[in-house]
Amino acid sequence: MDLESRLRLERDLSPVGEFLASVGGRLVRREQDPLGVYWAVLQPHNRERAPFTARIVWTVYPHRPPSVHFAMEPGGPTTESAAWPAANGYRAPNDICKPFTAEGQGLHAEWATGQHAWSSTGNPLLFVLDTLQGDIDRVDGRRAA
Predict the structure, then answer these.
(1) Which end of the chain is flanked by fewer CB atoms within 10 Å, N or C?
(2) Nearest CA to 85 among 127, 137, 37, 45?
């Protein structure tokens, strides 16, 4: 991750932390991870359900969408289906086929323009986390396996 991306990402972290705290989650940045890797702990609105942990990897912030996968805990492997939400477009444990992910954009060249194009305006990290939270809540925090 280049210096400009890192600085822009750091600028957007405060509102992200506030959002996650308001929904019972938190953002984790581990020192041993490469720059641009964050772990978001997302608590479903159904508090009886266990939280999800999303690994979010940015290569160029905010101009490209991140890679998003799920693990059981920060730093854990992203290969366990049980770590993933049972949401539409979430193909555990491989990818999320939606326009807000690098994987989705990579699979669908037609999403490069029009309504599905990645937008780098505003706070893209907050947008991704809000989208993940909404998708998790829509399935009541159910898991893929």
Answers:
(1) C
(2) 137
